[in-house]
Amino acid sequence: MSGVSANWARGHPWAAVYDFVVERESLSRPLGQLLFGTDTRLLYDRMRAVDEVPEGGAVLDIPCGGGVALRALTPEHRIRYVAADISSAMLERTGHVARELDLDQVETETADVENLQYADGEFDLCLSFAGLHCFPNPDEATSEIARVLKPGGRFVGSVFLRDGGIRYEPMVLFGRLAGVMGPSGGMRDLERWLDDAGFAESRVERSGAVAYFEAVR
Ligand SMILES: C[S@@+](CC[C@H](N)C(=O)[O-])C[C@H]1O[C@@H](n2cnc3c(N)ncnc32)[C@H](O)[C@@H]1O
Description:
Layout: H1 3-9, H2 13-22, H3 25-36, H4 41-46, E1 58-61, E2 80-85, H5 88-100, E3 106-110, E4 123-128, H6 138-148, E5 149-160, H7 169-178, H8 187-196, E6 200-207, E7 210-216
Parallel strand pairs: 1-2, 1-4, 2-3, 4-5
Antiparallel strand pairs: 5-7, 6-7
Helix pairs in contact: 6-8
Residues 5, 8, 15, 18-19, 22, 62-66, 68, 85-87, 90, 111-114, 129-131, 134-135 line the site of S-adenosylmethionine (SAM).
């Protein structure tokens, strides 16, 4: 495992800060606007994609981080929900959230998004919020996600893009110096990662420096 992912796997202090903020909409909305010029309501809205997964279906949430996307799941929704991350500290947080919300359909698993242990076509939906910019090779991560999705499966997520302009350079610099941000890319790179991985019907909505996307395998 290399660079930025190794830093996350070791349990970077930024992980706890990030998770504390993203779990609290009253904090993430003003901070998202201030630091990334983004409307984080778009993030929480996209978590609702899980509603469309039929009973018996399977979801991969990678990176699950501290389990923020679990808020869209209910105990009655009987699906297989795999919450995966490279950081055991993050997985412990997710496990705690799942227990608090009584979500016994959630499985937490250590996984490297660039080398997934899952079979081809195992999932109906992959969620990947604030992930691609934290990975060393976002193109390889996108291809692996495509591989484990069924034909017709959906990929829904968000990414901090690098081409937002000078206003966001301090956050890029911070992410690099702290060792929590990978190479990321611009809007064209995101479109290329999706196209090269074989995704179709891509829809990307940009809000400040963050792109919220969905695509079909
Ligand atoms: C900014 S957090 C986002 C987490 C969560 N989706 C959220 O929105 O709160 C980035 C996450 O990526 C995870 N990560 C970094 N490299 C990874 C890899 N190669 N495979 C899986 N997870 C990875 C980190 O451990 C961290 O939990």
